[in-house]
Specification:
It contains 34 helices and 25 strands. By secondary structure, the chain is an alpha/beta fold. Among the domains are: about 170 residues, Nucleotidyltransferase, domain 5 (2-Layer Sandwich), CATH 3.30.420.10; about 150 residues, Fumarase C, Chain B, domain 1; about 200 residues, Rossmann fold (3-Layer(aba) Sandwich). One of its GO terms (molecular function) is ATP binding.
Length: about 900
Amino acid sequence: MHRKYAVIDLETTGPKYEQGDRIFQFGCTLITDHKIVEHITLNINPEQSIPFEIQLLTGVTNADVEKAPYFDEVAMNIYNLLEGRTLVAHNVGFDGPFIITALKEALGIELEVPFIDTVQLAQICYPSAISYRLSDLTNMLKIPHTQVHTAGSDARATAQLFLILQEKIRSFSKVTLEQLVEFSNELIGDTGAIFKDAFSIAKGKDSNNYLIENGFVVSKKVFEEKSFPTTSKVSALNAYSKLVENQFLKDNDSQRKIIKKILETLEEEEPIHFIEAPPGSGKTYAYLLAALEKATNQNPIWIVTSNLLLQQQLYEDSVLPIVSALKIKNPIVSIKGQRNYIDLEAFSYKISQLKNDKSPRVSLSVMGLVVWITETETGDLSECNQVLYQSSLWKDICVKENSKKESLYWTKAVQSVQKSNIVVTNHAFLIHYASTMSYQTKPIVLLDEVQQFEHSLEQYGTVSIKFSNLFLLQQLWSDYYLNSMTNFSKDEEHLSRTINRKLLEICDLYETWFEELNRGNYLKESIVFTNEEWIETIHHEMIRAFTKSIIQLMNYLQENSEKTSLFENSIQLLQEMKDSLLKFQESNHSYFVIERKDQYGQEMIEVLRVDSVTHVFNHFKKTIKKLIGISATIPTFTPLFYDLKAQENLTIMDSKVNSHAHHIFIPNDLVSVTAASSNQYHEQIAYCIQQIYERNGGRMLVLMHSIEALMAVEELMVNYCKRNHIELLAQKGSQLGRKIQRRFQEKSDSILLGVYSFWEGFDSGGVSINSLVITKLPFPNPVTTHQQIVQLEMKEQNRSYFAQYSIKMMLLQLYQGLGRFSRPTQKNAEIWILDVRASISKYSDKVKNIFPESAVVIEKTFKKCLNSARIKNKD
């Protein structure tokens, strides 16, 4: 089927025609029979000044359009050009309505043409692309695009992109196209017609060349057997010399010493040892080389970092390059938890449900996933661009935690782990799965980011009781009774009344408990009890009463299972509650927590049992052969590592690291975070970031200490960054981390707001950062559940929480944050600490003691700090 297309791009004085914005440049590329036949570019006098920031963006000045024709003069030509063609644009939701409105006002005629959006087509056809900006797509696909943000060049590039997208869509199998067509009506305008046209052509094609799994075409590479070579022939130190010789690494005596120490420790009988190596000392390549030498079938080695972002960074930025540089077949596999992998059976079932309940947002996600499945080798959902992410959809289509059933990608990942001598993963996966996956032998663990391991152990040892199931069940039976009572038999009516009564009794028990907790503002956020305290409380008895009532209700339902259609749903919800209630009461090595939570817009109680991390660790260590913790900082002061006597099993490596003369600014006149309101504090931070960026520009990393503060500051920064064409990036969740990191590496003018992972092992990928802004000294929040438990553990150890934990943890995390500037590729930069406590508190000297010796520390008013920075930059 051959259509005629007009691919357009507009440059306008602003985004809204109805508010007076006008076109000052029109670009159009015509396509006929899949070939570009003509290009048109027009400058247009908008009869108003082009805003300065738009002149900078487009390169078009007021002088350029001063003598150009007015829109009225060229409107009919444009109308004739577009009439009878399908209108295509990159973000047609803007260009399409804008040009139609302009033509109608000028000519009194409404242009009626179909619309196609290349943004949506790209999101579906390239589901793993980092970005869908036109400039990024043209760069990825190697499309010539020299004058970005000029209408003629953008239209030409969009036309070439459109032809590539069409070609890719026509290459899809009949099976895939049929699945895409099912959801294509939800796309913008006539965008879905591209898939329908391709499907009509593909109907007669043979699909025997494709591999089908659960109704989806999958990549043939999924079924290719991967061989895992032994690594015994790799000598770590010889490989290191080879990497230095090939200029992959710079020769570093400290790095050689770390390699030797790890090799020695791997040979020793000592089951637990810790090695502290400063940031920038090269520990990552050191432990990778040691693993390549020592890992065997009898002694598999697991390399474990704290979270998914750092795991992906480690594998992509260190493992793959070093294996390639050594020219050896990759013996290392990376694995994540089950929830990170798509379950094709679950996705197929979800699609069958969605066919009668489509929405534009979910339809786009489904279509992108269908295409992604044809290409992915791993089934790891994090490969998909964030634009496809839908939390409820992801939850339904991922492999369920602790699921025993076969699932293509998860099963393949587990099989790879069982065959490989070296595995890369994260703390949570190690703890959850080390004891459940079958091995020929227990693994040796090289543990990075040791300071986060204690928190991972605590999360694993936490059991929660969420009472939301109870109210879902009550609603289910209440609706059933009201909707079906006229059709009930006597037995059904009796059963329904009895179940509703029993549920009401349990809910009344919960409500009484909740009211008691609320009396006198007893439950503000959370309450933590030791095991001994818990047993003496009424809460302990309430949990036992709930357990008894739930079991009685389940027994009654099972006795009457044939009398109701709600049996399966009811039993499933009750079983979940019963399991959590029984598991909750199993341990004697626990703390107990009652928290106030918002669920479904309603305040509810959540009850947690948190096992002692020492107890969890003692169980965990039985599943491994040896643990070697390797980090820039080993937290020997925390309750777990204090119990483990980590200080006695610690080697501190002397290392010469990057000694650039960074300037560290500590403004001493800012409003203290403890004195300011949250709004005032966030406004102050946003103002400081803007002022600092105007002095330095380039890449700025802003380390924040809470997601709430990050989102507030991001909102205050958006307009500033738009005006100045600065890429504003913000870490809002694990789905985004790695892609944000790559974006930061690519863009020379960018501000990255980071929390959590970005304090630790974040690596800027070989590019230098111009400014680091630390908004607040990273003290742990003492009112969180985790910290309340730490306080109880410290008390049991007769140690001071503030002096022996809180300050030390703040200094450790601050040291980690500053460690981003110890990389070999990092140049001299500015570091700003926007917390007056770093200058005026009793512990300010301790803060300054962790600064690099070569750093120049400047403590002045914020204005004088800025002036000092300006003088430094001129020099």
